[in-house]
Design goal:
Elements: E1 11-17, H1 24-32, E2 39-46, H2 52-62, E3 66-71, H3 76-86, E4 91-94, E5 100-101, H4 105-115, E6 120-128, E7 146-149, H5 150-157, E8 171-174, H6 175-178, H7 191-200, E9 205-217, H8 230-250, H9 255-272, H10 282-301, H11 303-308, H12 314-326
Parallel strand pairs: 1-2, 1-4, 2-3, 6-9
Antiparallel strand pairs: 4-8, 5-9, 6-8, 7-9
């Protein structure tokens, strides 16, 4: 990850950019306005067809901390991997280009991580709409800072409702945690989930700042709101199952939590991507229905595990089984 003859910085922030010209300036501004200043911002333009490439270059001319990479469209994983190879920071973080962060976010993360000798620092987040308003029904409960050992991090990954989340964007990592690890460029959904699970196996301690320092913008057209195909969603469920099985090897007592999260993901993703677009061709509709049927079948095949799972109430078990049977 390291280049020779380049001055190391304390923090590298990697931001993949694609078709977000409406949101990009707010994202970049929130990073440049950080109270913590010893960072480099790596913007990877993933062949964006709008004005994003120009916006990236414009900001790079104004602030020497910004580095811009332009590449042909190859997906978010390739973009993030380019950023990882270029990063010089002692710590590495990721921000999605339609999101934004609080002014003190990185100051709090790095200060608390170094004081407590942590490998990872996590910031809590808020779900907001495009106007910055907290989304009704997605309000979160915040609290005091927590210090977590590896087992507790694994356990909290599977919290329902979500706490620290199985994503990369609200965390910073010591660079050695990421050494030799990269995003799988062959998958288009849950690629960050997979990499985070690999990172967690390397950590000893983490700090969780339970304040809303990261704003996750919920918008139409984003990766998890219509920007992915149902085949990508279906394949991502294999990753969740893989993580659950790996959890059973590391911490057998946490398997039920991981399995519950896996089944919940199956149901949520099946429902979210079950609708057929009337403008699709007959072939596209048939293909969509075939994949949707396979997602239902997956849940039905897991019914024995659902019945055994001690983390689910009887009501939840019946809910999951009914959805698997009826869709």
């Amino acid at each position: 990850m390291k280049k020779e003859n380049v001055k190391d910085v304390k923090l590298s922030i990697i931001v993949p950019v694609y078709k977000v010209e409406k949101y990009l300036r707010k994202c970049i501004d929130s990073i440049l306005e950080q109270s913590f200043e010893d960072f480099e911002l790596i913007l990877i333009d993933d062949g964006s067809p709008d004005n994003c490439p120009m916006i990236c270059d414009e900001y790079a001319q104004k602030d020497s901390r910004i580095k811009v990479i332009h590449q042909e469209n190859a997906g978010v994983s390739r973009a993030r991997n380019r950023g990882l190879k270029m990063a010089t920071g002692q710590w590495i973080g990721f921000v999605d280009s339609d999101d934004y962060i609080e002014k003190t976010a990185y100051e709090q993360l790095i200060e608390n991580a170094e004081i407590n000798n942590c490998d990872v620092a996590i910031m809590d987040f808020a779900y907001v709409d495009e106007c910055g308003l907290t989304i009704l029904g997605k309000e979160r409960t915040y609290g005091d800072m927590l210090l977590l050992d590896q087992k507790k991090v694994v356990e909290m990954q599977f919290d329902i409702p979500l706490s620290i989340r199985l994503v990369m964007f609200n965390k910073i990592f010591k660079r050695e945690i990421l050494d030799g690890l990269f995003f799988d460029e062959s998958i288009k959904c849950a690629e960050d989930t997979l990499l985070l699970s690999q990172c967690v196996e390397r950590i000893n301690k983490a700090v969780f700042i339970r304040q809303p320092l990261y704003y996750n913008v919920q918008r139409e057209g984003s990766a998890m709101h219509g920007g992915l195909k149902i085949i990508d969603i279906a394949k991502s469920l294999d990753i969740h199952k893989q993580i659950a099985l790996r959890t059973s090897e590391l911490f057998p007592e946490l398997y039920d939590s991981a399995f519950y999260y896996y089944i919940d993901s199956c149901v949520w993703k099946m429902r979210a991507y079950g609708k057929v677009n009337s403008e699709w061709s007959k072939e596209m509709i048939m293909d969509h229905k075939r994949i949707y049927k396979s997602m239902k079948k997956r849940i039905i095949q897991e019914i024995p595990g659902i019945l055994r799972c001690k983390k689910m109430s009887l009501k939840q078990k019946l809910h999951f089984i009914i959805i698997g049977v009826t869709g």
